[in-house]
Write a structure and sequence with these properties.
Radius of gyration of chain A: 22 Å
Radius of gyration of chain B: 30 Å
Structural class of chain A: alpha+beta
Order of helices and strands of chain A: HHEHEE
Number of helices of chain B: 15
Distance between the termini of chain B: 73 Å
Oligomer: heterodimer
Number of strands of chain B: 17
Strand content of chain A: 5-15%
Largest sheet of chain A: 2 strands, antiparallel
Helix content of chain B: 25-40%
Shape of chain A: flat
Structural class of chain B: alpha+beta
Strand order of the largest sheet of chain A: 2-3
Number of strands of chain A: 3
Largest sheet of chain B: 9 strands, mixed
Largest interface: A-B, 39 and 53 residues
Number of helices of chain A: 3
Number of domains of chain B: 3
């Protein structure tokens, strides 16, 4: 499977990464190479092998109690906000 | 629709009653829904911040919810329990092994850049909810229920060029409940959401408050020729009242029919319902549809449940609406209609049972449904706010049963208790509302009325129903306090009418 420049443009947009037109071709080539390498892995027969989503599958998931232990730290939350108004984050207008 | 696509099976037989008549013949509407129900919990799904509605902006936010680097999600076990409890209440399969995935998209109110959700392996599988429409019981299939995080809130109307973001809701636990496309009319869709809300409230897993957004529906609507192949569907996003659900479906079905009848094709797209205009409008087409690039969240291990723990939760389930309704019919001899009216709200059902305790169930149901509910509705009160307690209403019913007061006086008494409060028995004593059951006293009045109206007595001999006039006169003379049955019996006896 190979990736064309249009696909690269689309993936970049989905990931909100800005790339220039000059970068499209080299990136398409690199991504294609990666995919080809992944395709090689497809040669291994994985029928009846469940996908492993974690290396610690036998460990029980850590859980918390339903108790409010956090929050009320507006200043920390907003500390890195490029813009704020009162306790709100302010961002460029986004209306879908 | 975000869930993995499964094969659609038509479970229903087309029913003419649901057809929409078009210019070129009848059409049938097919409806499936995704309901987002906010889990009732104190803290959020993966952080210790408060899940409470409202609060000053960005105060119910932890560094986890704000997606600060290095923060890790830790699941709230009560939210898991609530999802399991809901699954059990929907007669659904509980998956002892489920996986959390990342659903990737960018939006300012989603600081992580992804929503933690469940994709291929949700915590709850297939189930069934039974709805009732026009006396017919219809099973609506549940496809799945999964746990996911809510996003924050963007506010667009505070500034011309900027949007404001409040993350208080970001990370609050939601249950997404997906139905099969089993509904065939706006009525059925509304009945489904009402029923689901009732079940969630009985279970205590979601407060069902649609105005606050605790329960909201995405509706998939398509039309087809009755029994024919399914048409292309449109998804109407985030409808937040049962009335709007009905309006949105009716508008959308008609819109699609109009397109098809004028030779066009329905485009698969996401639409928004505008309650002010009562119409749906395009939000994004299939080409612009999101590509969420789901993958298992590496920050979270698979969620494994203990079968015994699930059984423990099952053992604590309350009596659910369907079972309660069946019991009300059986135990109190109620009509199915009255029973379903009472069980629609758990508090109302509990109130009824308190009134019915040791009394005639049918009489109790009549009073609760007709007098109490009517008055509550008129005054805009909930059952919890009722000025008349179950005990007071029970006493009023007892007074009627004993023959102390007539049905008409009972309504006056109800009104007095409603506005002034007090003990019904005392009120009846103190205000002389007791009806006269002393036969000799009634007989005296009957004799007087007969003696004063010899012409009517003559008439009554030819036309027995003139007796009714005498009954009326006696009731008037006793200011309605005479027992009507006793009066009727005496009048007929005296006039020689059997």
């Amino acid at each position: 499977m190979s990736v064309d420049t249009e696909t690269v443009r689309r993936i970049a947009r989905l990931a909100r990464i800005r790339i220039s037109d000059e970068e499209l071709k080299p990136l398409a080539r690199e991504l294609s190479a990666i995919l080809q390498w992944v395709e090689q892995l497809n040669e291994v027969d994985t029928e009846n092998v469940p996908p492993m989503t974690s290396v610690e599958e036998d460990m029980p998931m850590k859980k918390r109690k339903d108790i409010v232990t956090d929050g009320d730290c507006v200043e920390d939350i907003l500390a890195n906000a490029p813009a704020r108004e009162g306790n709100f984050f302010v961002v460029p207008k986004v209306v879908e | 629709m975000d869930a993995p696509v499964t094969e659609i099976i038509d479970t229903r037989t087309p029913n003419e009653k649901n057809f929409i008549e078009g210019a070129t013949g009848p059409w049938e509407v097919i409806i499936g829904m995704e309901i987002h129900a906010q889990v009732l919990s104190k803290a959020k799904l993966f952080s210790g911040a408060s899940a409470e509605f409202g609060g000053e902006p960005n105060t119910h936010v932890s560094l986890v919810d704000a997606a600060m680097p290095g923060m890790l999600p830790v699941i709230n076990e009560f939210c898991v329990e609530q999802a399991v409890r809901t699954g059990l209440g929907l007669n659904a399969k509980i998956n002892l092994y489920s996986v959390f995935d990342r659903k990737n998209y960018f939006y300012p109110d989603l600081p992580q850049g992804y929503q933690i959700s469940q994709y291929k392996q949700p915590i709850v599988g297939e189930g069934t909810v039974y709805i009732e429409v026009d006396g017919e019981t219809i099973p609506v299939g549940i496809e799945r229920l999964h746990l996911e995080q809510d996003a924050g809130k963007s506010i667009h109307d505070q500034h011309p060029d900027y949007s404001y973001v409040d993350l208080n809701r970001a990370g609050v636990a939601l249950m997404e409940i997906v139905t099969k496309p089993d509904m065939r009319s706006a009525e059925e869709a509304k009945a489904f959401v009402s029923k689901l809300r009732t079940i969630l409230r009985y279970l205590g897993t979601c407060d069902g408050n649609m105005e606050q957004g605790s329960l909201r529906a995405d509706i998939n609507v398509s039309v087809r020729r009755p029994g024919g192949p399914f048409g292309t569907r449109c998804e109407i996003k985030n409808v937040n009242s049962i009335r709007f659900i009905g309006q949105a479906i009716e508008y959308e079905a008609q819109r699609q029919i109009d397109i098809l009848e004028s030779g066009g094709t329905v485009e698969q797209e996401t639409r928004l319902f505008d309650p002010k205009k009562g119409e749906t409008r395009s939000m994004r087409s299939k080409e612009e549809a999101h590509d969420y690039r789901y993958f298992p969240d590496p920050d979270l291990l698979p969620l494994k449940l203990d079968a015994e723990w699930v059984e423990q939760i099952r053992a604590t389930l309350p009596e659910l609406p369907d079972a309660k309704k069946a019991r009300f019919i059986e135990q109190y001899g109620l009509t199915p209609y009255d029973a379903s009216v009472l069980v629609a709200d758990k508090a109302a059902a509990d109130f009824f049972e308190e009134v019915a305790k040791g009394r005639d169930g049918k009489a109790a149901a009549n009073w609760v449904i007709n007098e109490l509910f009517g008055r509550l509705r008129k005054d805009g009160l909930s059952i919890e706010q009722s000025p008349v307690s179950a005990d007071q209403l029970g006493k009023i019913i007892d007074l009627v049963k004993k023959g102390d007061i007539s049905g008409r006086t009972a309504k006056e008494l109800f009104d007095i208790v409603w506005t002034e409060g007090g003990d019904p028995e005392k009120i009846v004593e103190e205000r002389g509302m007791k009806q006269v059951t002393d036969l000799s006293a009634i007989e005296k009045v009957v004799d007087e009325v007969i003696a004063a109206n010899p012409d009517k007595v003559e008439q009554a001999k030819k036309k027995p129903n003139v007796a009714g006039w005498f009954v009326g006169q006696v009731m008037k003379a006793t200011q309605g306090k005479a027992n009507p049955k006793a009066v009727n019996d005496l009048v007929r006896k005296k006039l020689g009418i059997s």
